Amino acid sequence: MQKSYTKNYLKIYLWQGVSLVLNFLSMFVVIPYLTSDPTTYGIYTVCISFSIFLAYADLGFMSAGQKFAAESFAKGDRDEEIKIIGFTNFILLLFLILFSIIFVYLSTQPELLVKDLKTIEQKHVASSLLLLLAIFTPTTLLQRLLQMIFGVRMEDFIIQRTNTIGSIIRILSVLWFFRDGNYNIIGYFSFAQVVNLIAALITLQVARVKYDYDFKKLFLSISFNKIIFRKIKGLAFASLFVTISWILYYELDTVAIGKLLGASDVAIYAIGLTILAFFRSILGILFSPFNVRFNHFVGNGEEENLKSFYLQIVSIFAPIVMFPMIAIAIFAKPLVITWVGEDYCDSVPIVQYLVFCNFFAFITYPTNFILLAKERQKELYFISTILPVVFWTGIVITIGIWGVKSFAIFKFIAFLFSALVLFKLMIGYLKINLLESLKIIFSPLFLPILFLTLTSFVVRQYMPVEKSKVYLLVVVGVIGVLILASFIILYLTSLKWRIQLNKIIKGFGIKKFQKSN
Asked: How many Å apart are CA 335 and CA 337, to the nearest integer?
């Protein structure tokens, strides 16, 4: 196993940068085409929201398996790695088959999923999208298998390169499927699924050649393995509980809104959800390499290096997470209106609440990784219980008062509760007190955040509020300039952050984090 992963980190982040640009293009090019028919877009959002369940079809065994596969890779035991990957993908395969059957059934009865399907065309759209989900579920198996193989080697950038080409093709395809007088959302979705499948097959071939990977042995290992099951079942069941909690918290809101309030409210909510999903995907990409690296440290028994690396990640990523979210929340109104138009004005407060659902992601992501790496199952169960209980209790109480807005408000409140618990666990693990944590993590951010907040409120008054690609670029450009200015202020005013940034630029060093300014 490599001793240094500097080049891997840099390559991952290079392709993350490309992915970030493409995600922006997808949001600001594709979404306006889709939202041109709000009712159909609402139906599309409800149906496609079901595809997210495919990401959880392994019932937690995949995340547990990745931990142990990474440890096996760190020890140089490829046979054990293959057995673990094979077993976890067997569990995934079983449930993908089950989901395919469910999707096929729902495609024959789409009104069970979406309220008020009034026309034959609307029913056709819903049925076709659900049937396509069923047909292309095998792609998920290939994607997850590849994520494990490349992920444990911290070479996710290889998958990202292939997916980047696929993303460009999908973005360009909207010019065909949504040209003048044509709104072919079924054709667009089916084409996107074919592109995803081809990208996965190409990446599979890359893995076979690059690693001389024995895929015959791997595919034969896709079966039940009692020894592997006993090894990972404790963490897997904890991950399963986390998975169920995550589905209840993150993935059922559009389904519930579609059933209780209708497709129009789904469309209003979906704008905020699109921005939330954008941040989630970016944050997942940013933090995922560190999850694997934590497992490497645990596998090799490097406890002090793990603590130092963990604290560095939290400190460095605090401004990277917080600055963009503050700016987008303040500029939500001009951003939404220039993006999708005045029909979506009600989406503005929803965007603001949902953006802040990841405000403390620099704490929640790495701390959850630590809990998984250290197999702290009780804490995982507790945190996973908080999210859905607070979320759905709040909705039941307030949906009659606030309507669709209650989903956004209590998604944020539930996140805030869990973030506070994870913050307490973080300072406990690092053996630092509250004041030390505030000094290390938050004190360098005071001046940049003050500048960003005050300047954003002033500049927002002069932003255009009319749907236009040019105006949208103006708003996004202003947001980008203010965020960049905040980082410059941080760099100039915080010696601690400057030192740590220079360490990362030179090689993601893991020397002990300096607590003094």
From this structure: 6
pLDDT for residue 150: 86
Spacing of C-alpha 137 from chain mean position: 20
Which residues are CB-neighbours of 11 under 8 A, at least 6 positions away?
155, 157
Alpha helices (H) along 136-262? 137-151, 157-177, 185-210, 215-220, 226-246, 253-260
Domain ranges of the chain: 1-236, 252-517
By the 8 A CB rule, do 404 and 269 touch?
Answer: yes
Q: Which residue has the tokens 């640009």?
A: 21
The span from the CA of 116 to the CA of 126, in Å, is 12
Q: How many CB atoms lie within 10 A of CB 218?
A: 19
First-residue to last-residue Cα distance in the chain? 36
Question: Chain-wide mean pLDDT for the chain?
Answer: 82
Low-confidence ranges of the chain (pLDDT < 70): 1-10, 13, 16-17, 20, 23-31, 33-37, 39, 46-53, 55-60, 113-116, 299, 503-517
> Is 131 in a helix, a strand, or coil?
helix
Using the Cα atoms of residue 224, residue 225, residue 230 and residue 235 in order, give the sign of their dihedral.
Answer: negative
Q: Is 114 helix (H, G, I), strand (E, B) or coil?
A: coil
Other CB atoms within a 10 A radius of the CB of residue 36 amount to 13
